[in-house]
Amino acid sequence: MAIRMKTNDKKRASTGFTLVEVVFATVIISVGLLTLLAVFSQAVGTAQLAQDESIARAEAQRMIESIYSARNTGQVAFVRFQNVSQDATNGMFLDGLKPMNDYGADGLPNTNDDASTIEIGPNGQPLSNFQRSVAFAPVYLSDGVTIDGNVRAVTVTIQYIVGNRTRTYSQQSYISTYR
Predict the structure, then answer these.
(1) In whole angstroms, what is the distance from residue 130 CA to residue 152 CA?
(2) Cβ count near 91 (within 10 Å)
């Protein structure tokens, strides 16, 4: 007896992927990964910006509170709450943006006795990309001409750099002779 094998005359369908399909899939995956990388990079930048904005707000508030504290304890006379450019004899606050140096013995920012060391931020890093200013301005009575000798406006400005952009945060308050 002879053994006969059955053969299928149809060609077998090829299995696997063609080179074109592989290249196309690689391009799609590459585009997807690059998009994810760009989104991740943007998220890191946004997180840094949010952290620096938070630091700027906290520093401005801390500076205002230290001024109130010095006034409330009587540590500094009201007449001293001025910039040096306004009153060279009595003014104790330096004009313009200054590095974020540690507070000096008077416990006030941007005065002549500030330390030479840069403040350390909440993340344990020096605040070397931050600068601050404290500016006092007179407050006028309702006639718009007469200066109220019992009240001054104080504006604290924090300037910082995020990436290649300079950002500014300002907080204004008022300080009076009354405690």
Answers:
(1) 26
(2) 18
- Inside any domain, residue 5: no
Query: Is 15 part of a structural domain of the chain?
Result: no
Residue 132 falls inside a structural domain: yes
Q: What is the DSSP string of 83-133?
A: BTTT-TTT--BPPS-EE-BPP-TT--SSBTT--SSBPB-TTSSB-TTEEEE
Examine residue 41 and state whether it is found in any structural domain, yes or no: yes
Q: Which of 134, 132, 153 is nearest to 83 (CA)?
A: 134
What is the total count of domains within the chain?
Answer: 1
Nearest Cα residue to 161 out of 13, 53, 44? 53
The boundaries of the domain holding residue 83 are: 20-176
Tokens of 124: 């344990």
Q: Tell me the whole-structure pTM to 2 decimals.
A: 0.76
Per-residue model confidence as pLDDT tens digits over 105-153: 888 989 989 999 999 988 888 999 999 999 999 999 999 999 999 999 9
Q: Which residues pair with 132 in a beta bridge?
A: 98, 158
Average pLDDT on 65-91 reads 92
Rounded to an integer, what distance in angstroms lies between the CA atom of residue 3 and that of residue 112? 109
